[in-house]
Design a protein that fits this description.
Strand content: 35-45%
Distance between the termini: 29 Å
Largest sheet: 9 strands, antiparallel
Number of domains: 1
Helix content: 10-25%
Mean pLDDT: 85
Number of helices: 2
Low-confidence stretches: none
Length: 121
């Protein structure tokens, strides 16, 4: 089995986090996406439950088989295209890394300034 780095794909069709991303936050049912516009970073951080308006379901069944997570566009890609000077008719793949806060909370960080691939539809 080959190593697959954690990546996220952005396109007008939606956002897809690969299995490696999901495996880096194995026991997290809900996450929140946060973007640092100045530095061009996207953060995926765990949150307590799905009652927060900004939460998204990350792990459907913690402890069960892992699947890539796909989310609808909801205008997020359009915002990224404007702020990152991306082309809207491309798919962008960005590598990520897992970090831990000083409190030991895990999170994922993606540098949107450094897409590893851009593919025309």
């Amino acid at each position: 089995m080959r190593f697959q780095p954690p990546t996220v794909k952005f396109s007008s069709k939606g956002i897809v986090f690969n299995i490696a991303c999901v495996n880096l936050l194995p026991d997290v049912p809900y996450v929140c996406f946060a973007r640092n516009i100045k530095d061009g970073l996207l953060f995926v951080t765990p949150i307590a439950d799905g009652s927060d308006v900004h939460s998204v379901h990350w792990r459907v069944n913690c402890g069960k088989k892992v699947y890539p997570r796909k989310y609808g566009n909801y205008g997020f890609f359009d915002i990224l295209c404007k702020s990152m000077s991306w082309f809207s008719d491309c798919t962008y793949t960005v590598k990520g890394e897992r970090f831990d806060t000083d409190d030991g909370e895990p999170y994922l960080r993606f540098d949107l300034n450094m897409p590893c691939r851009a593919t025309l539809f």
